[in-house]
């Protein structure tokens, strides 16, 4: 298993990024300004994009694992790597996600705690309804990890 910082042609991983954020225009808003990491284990398994928001605040904008490899620890390993990679530069790492218990539990198991909520985020910022496990996402829940 290895994790690589991707500097060029980030869009070659667009299909996987769309599993984490299903609207391409939203990905385009952060892809070029973010650091992209890909976890390989006999091929790409997980991808993420992290942006610097200033003053030691970084945001995990997208993390996705290939559907057939979910639940095998790849996402968690990628987050652990990010914590090490940004140590010393990062004061706070944020992640925003849909208000779904299983997703929130994943981030909490990785060390994040709930920070705040942005009401109607998915309604106001996406051009189509976003669903997770058959339920429409409405609010964005932000979690944080302090270093």
What shape does the CA trace take?
globular
User: How much helical structure, as a percent, in the residues?
Assistant: 25-40%
Task: List unreliable stretches of 5+ residues.
Answer: none
> How many runs of DSSP E, i.e. beta strands?
9
CATH superfamily: Gcn5-related N-acetyltransferase (GNAT)
Short description:
This protein is α+β, with helices and mostly antiparallel strands.
Report on this structure:
The protein is of the alpha+beta class and 147 residues long. It has a single domain, classed as 3-Layer(aba) Sandwich (Aminopeptidase). The protein has five helices and nine strands. The chain has helices at residues 14-20, 24-31, 74-86, 101-109, 121-125, and strands at residues 2-6, 35-40, 44-54, 57-65, 92-98, 113-118, 131-132, 135-136, 140-146. The protein has a seven-stranded mixed β-sheet with strand order 1-2-3-4-5-9-6, sandwiched between helices. Strand 4, helix 3 and strand 5 form a beta-alpha-beta unit. The longest helix has 13 residues, at 74-86.
């Amino acid at each position: 298993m290895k994790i690589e910082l991707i500097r060029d042609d980030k869009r070659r991983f667009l299909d996987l990024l769309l599993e984490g954020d299903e609207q391409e225009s939203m990905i385009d808003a952060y892809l070029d300004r973010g650091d992209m990491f890909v976890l390989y284990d006999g091929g790409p398994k997980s991808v993420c994009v992290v942006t610097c928001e200033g003053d030691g605040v970084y945001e995990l904008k997208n993390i996705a694992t290939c559907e057939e490899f979910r639940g095998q620890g790849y996402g968690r390993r990628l987050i652990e790597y990010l914590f090490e990679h940004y140590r010393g530069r990062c004061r706070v790492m944020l992640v925003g996600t849909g208000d779904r218990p299983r997703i929130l539990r994943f981030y909490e198991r990785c060390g994040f705690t709930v920070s705040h909520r942005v009401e109607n985020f998915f309604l106001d910022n996406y051009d189509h309804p976003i669903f997770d496990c058959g339920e429409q996402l409405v609010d964005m829940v932000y979690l944080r990890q302090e270093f």
